Amino acid sequence: MATAKAHTNIALVKYWGKENQELIIPQTDSLSLTLNEFYTTTTVNFDDQLTSDQVYVDKQLLDQQDAKKVVHILNLVRELSGINYFAKVNSTNHVPTAAGLASSASAFAALAGAASSAAGLKLSSRDLSRLARRGSGSATRSIYGGLVEWQKGTDDQSSFAKPILEDVDFPIEMLAVLVNTKKKKISSRSGMQSSVATSPYYDAWRKVVARDMTAIKKAIKAKDIDLIGHIAEENALRMHALTLSADPGFTYFNAETLTIIKAVQDLRNNGINCYYTMDAGPNVKVIYDRMNREKIVTKLSNIIGHDRLVVSQPGPGIKIWNE
Ligand code: DP6
Fold this sequence. Notes:
Layout: E1 2-13, E2 18-20, E3 25-26, E4 30-47, E5 54-57, E6 60-61, H1 68-81, E7 86-94, H2 104-118, H3 125-133, E8 147-151, E9 160-165, E10 172-177, H4 188-198, H5 202-221, H6 225-244, H7 255-269, E11 275-277, E12 284-289, H8 293-304, E13 309-312, E14 319-322
Parallel strand pairs: 5-7
Antiparallel strand pairs: 1-4, 1-14, 2-3, 4-7, 4-8, 5-6, 8-9, 10-12, 10-13, 11-12
Bound molecules: ligand DP6.
InterPro entries: GHMP_kinase_C_sf (IPR036554), Mev_decarb (IPR005935), Mev_diP_decarb (IPR029765), MVD-like_N (IPR053859), Mvd1_C (IPR041431), Ribosomal_Su5_D2-typ_SF (IPR020568), Ribsml_uS5_D2-typ_fold_subgr (IPR014721)
Protein name: diphosphomevalonate decarboxylase
EC number: 4.1.1.33
């Protein structure tokens, strides 16, 4: 039996498209910030008494369909370790409010850590990152803390994350703005697949990412929060242009998303530097220097309410305990 705690991450240069669906090899590199406030804790127990895998998420037993991706990782761990018992998986998402920012990134990183350790495997961080990748692409990066790069590689061996700056020693912060969401979500998995297959801009996106990766690494070295934020904002808009330009076109934005984008632009026009990024949903994350936090929180509280804002510092890498 083992337990792992992994934090979620938000991409500053996005992963949006796979080269290999089965192995989850991405089309491009990507780079993210691991967040302190959002994490998943998962316990895995391989037990010879069980007659099937049992997966609990936030105390709810998942049915076979919902548990499929989890069982896929358990099967990989059984293959690697030679253990052939079924497992009980208990996973809890820690998010400060009910409005979901629960992420497959922290979930599959914690699962990879707990399952491999419970099976007696002692994987290196690199191999843990490769295993987490098989559950969800963004989970590849949640093995490490701070600023993390996922090198796309070309196959299962060469596609893994590596830390760029684990202990972030400059005052970058991220504010999660939890936007109201009622509409059924298009999963990132199918959204990116249709973008790759149908957006006429996909080739341009590959070039954008290559250029942004070089630029953001320089900005990180220079501890230049404004430049990091600017690159992240442009990159996010260009990712979302792939959804708008797919066939059929779609968007993850809603009216509130646009309201928050406008508020960030207003703040900037008033000399308070901050930048936005969005993933496969309407929530907005704002990037800024800690010294601007109060002004940004005040302005956004007036628009959306204080209880829908969560300030987060950079967070740590995965921790695993054997029990
Ligand atoms: C917009 O990692 O959720 O958050 O690999 O199909 O599980 P799968 O997709 P997922 O996609 C994340 C997309 C993103 C950008 C990013 O995190 O890089």
